[in-house]
Amino acid sequence: MDNRNNRQDQFTDRGEVTGVRPGSEVVNTKTKAKEKTAVKQTVATLSEEEMDAAIVNRPKAKNVTPLANQKLTPKDIPVFEDTPERREKLELRKKRHFKRKLRDWGIFTGYLTPSLAGVLVFFFLPLLMLLKTSFQKSPTNSDFVGFRNYERVLTNEAFISASKNTLTFALISVPLAVVLALFIALLLNSGLPGKSLFRSFLLNPMMVPVASVVLIWQVFFSYNGVVNGITAQLFDDAEKIDWLKSSYAQIVIMLLFLWKNLGYNMVLFLAALNSIPHEILESAEIDGAGPVKRFFSIKLHYLSPTIFFVGIMSLINSFKIFREVYLLTGDYPFDNLYMLQHFMNNSFTHLDYSKLSAGAIVMCVVMVVIVGGLFFAESKFDSDVEE
Amino acid sequence: MDEIKRKQRRKEATLARRHIYVETKQPETFITSLSDEARENFFASEKKRIALNLRRRKIKKGIFTGIGVAAAIIISALALVPIFFTFLNSFMSSEEIVSNYQVVFQSMSGHASQGATYMSRTPVLKLIPEEVTIKQYTTLLFMNPEYLFKYWNSILLTLPIVAGQMVVACLASYSFARYRRKRREVLFFSYIILMLMPFQVTLVPNYMISDALGILNTIWAIILPGIFSTFAIFLLTKYMRQIPSGYIEAATLDGATEWQIFTNIALPLCKNAIFALTILLFIDYWNMVEQPLVLLTDVDKQPLSVFLSQINEPELGIAFAASSVYMIPPLLIFFWGEDYLVEGISRSGIK
Q1: Confidence band (pLDDT; 50, 70, 90) for B114?
Q2: For testing the chain A interface, which of B202, B281, B293, B304 should be mutated: the one with the most A CBs within 10 Å?
Q3: Is there a contact between A217 and B171 if contact means CB atoms under 8 Å apart?
Q4: Whole-number mean pLDDT of chain A?
Q5: Could you tell me which of B263, B312, B311, B270 has the C-alpha nearest to residue B289?
Q6: Residue B167: which pLDDT band, with cuts at 50, 70 and 90?
Q7: What is the pLDDT of residues A246-287, one digit of tens each?
Q8: 3.40.50.1110, 3.40.630.30, 1.20.1250.20, 1.10.3720.10: CATH of B139-349
Q9: d(Cα A293, Cα A300) in Å, to the nearest integer?
Q10: pLDDT by residue (tens digit) across A62-97?
């Protein structure tokens, strides 16, 4: 859909005839500059009669399309008078150009308008307000305090530990989600019977509202819960662990995260595995490449864009894990479950808006850097694969 | 020249004809060197060996698929266990639930440190009901209209958001996919960033804006930002960019207007993605907890998810039934539209 605007460049690069008439875009840009200088010169040096003569005897505009690489001689370039009609025409052209630009943005045709307006009001405007309040003493007291809020946030222990927790969670759970999902997809794709049945089983957790399973999760992992009961029955001297209030808490949350997201990632990988050209795999098999070799030298190459996509989606979902943590453990969970969103929620309830906004801005900046890096890497990777 | 060539060819042909009848001696191989009887024996033994190999390979493959199936069964069992037990527990009578799980929730709610050491005996939790009743459901659905109202609130919040966001997203992603310029890519990237932004980041300004618009503490405070959320635009744009440009060029050559291209080409080609996205959005907003918790201070207006997250001991008896009832619509939608969902998800990830 996007190669529309490249076409003209391609033709001109090849040196073919563009079919552009004088008066349309390509010629226009050149004539405008010339026209100005020409008018100036005539005004400065010539008398009226001479000017009339110049206008009458001016070289005629040829209705010939110039070749792209051919240089234009002054004779080929039409000279235009600076009449009111001409001005009107130019204005009209400007208007048309503006209209086309609006059309390109989808505003004129109304495609982007609703979304852009809503996003501006409900997302960009809040961000700007956030930026403003992060430099103020408080939202009501608009004294400029410089970077003091940021200083306060960055030295705040709760903020530091919260960002550390959020980062470690993302760093461990995202690769785990990608690798495990890939493993399951390979398993299902190796010619198992009932593949689609397993797929829908694994997709099921995604569809279940968190609020519904929180209850059973608590039954499993609380101090007097099922998991402790099972370990106590299996091993006599097993110590009872309060899963959600110990250093194991992050593991429980990771299990919840994986339980919820593996299905989605697996479907993405299954589709990518199916799109690998079959002939290549078969010919590799005939040449004696084992399954491991086939995976690492062929499949991984074709899967790499999908791996990136799955990574990005998992990262998005790992930011959303706060909901589960909040539902399981409330406002003040165990230390290593204290996420950035907890920090923000709690400073909201404590009415510490300036701290909240500074923290939010810091988080935004970090996120922009991470996601921007990921997307940049993805686009580079994609072009590699296409070659 | 021609004649010379023709003569040469004729010469070659006659030579070839002559050579056909010349008997060439077959080279001696292992099989020809054997006597007839030995050859028969050799063939028989070879056949046996190959058959054995084949059988071995079959058994090996069978073992591997067996292991694979076992692993898949274990994994999917793990995935289904929480859902299964929630449903199972919803058929317990409420007294049984209280006597079973009181231990669990005493250590959970509120008193964090002293509750943990409350009971030292190993609890033997019964996950399977001793007698199956639907008492929980009857109390939930017929005795307490409160829950039904909360259920209705959930529906009232979710459906407008999903419908509105789909309409907005279809239009916006069409414009993103149709025109690609450098500045637009920047806009698209900022949309992605907005999609990633946790709700808490813009909590305060959102609160202030909905206060200024006079929609605080009404459902519109949640619906309006929900409609303009950019998640659907991200995925749908990715999908729409896969539409071959030839289709659209052909349509413009035939004189189709932009709107005709949109409704007759772009939308039908993205049907699967639109279905999949609708399902994904539905589950996402059916799930939402934080927004109503902050923006709807009226308890009467809050959806069921908020109630489920704040369940305490007195309501424990019907908690499982409420959870199950809350789970049913997304699961039904999933079973109805699974093929669309899978198709839509999978096409979004492939380049």
Answers
A1: very low
A2: B202
A3: no
A4: 78
A5: B311
A6: very high
A7: 778 888 889 999 999 999 899 999 988 988 888 999 999 899
A8: 1.10.3720.10
A9: 10
A10: 555 556 566 666 676 667 777 888 888 889 999 988
Closest CA to B294 of B224, B222, B223: B222
Task: Report how far residue B124's alpha carbon sits from residue B89's, in angstroms, rounded to the nearest whole number.
Answer: 15
Q: Would you say A269 and A183 are in contact if contact means Cβ atoms under 8 Å apart?
A: no
CA distance A290 to A297: 11
In sequence order, the β-bridge partners of residue A24 are A22
Domain spans, chain B: 2-56, 90-133, 139-349
pTM assigned to the model: 0.76
Q: What structural domains and CATH numbers belong to chain A?
A: 6-80 (no CATH), 113-146 (no CATH), 149-386 (1.10.3720.10)
Shortest distance between the Cα of B241 and any Cα of chain A, in A, equals 6
This complex has an ipTM of 0.78
pLDDT for B170: 92
Distance from CA of A165 to the nearest CA of B (A): 16
- Say whether A112 and B175 touch across the interface (CB within 8 A): yes
- CB atoms B204 and A115 under 8 Å: no
A133 token code pair: 């309040």
For B290-348, the DSSP string reads HHHHHH---GGG--HHHHHHT--GGGHHHHHHHHHHHHHHHHHHHHHHHHHHHHHHHHH
- Alpha helices by DSSP H, listed for chain B, are 2-20, 30-33, 36-89, 94-108, 112-116, 135-138, 145-178, 182-196, 203-212, 220-227, 231-240, 245-253, 258-261, 267-269, 271-286, 290-295, 304-309, 316-349
Of chain A, the percentage scoring pLDDT greater than 90 comes to 10
What is the distance between the terminal CA atoms of chain A, rounded to a whole angstrom? 20
Q: What is the pLDDT of residue A28?
A: 47
CA dist., res. B86 & res. B127, Å (int)? 9
Q: Tell me the shortest Cα–Cα distance from B294 to chain A, in angstroms.
A: 9
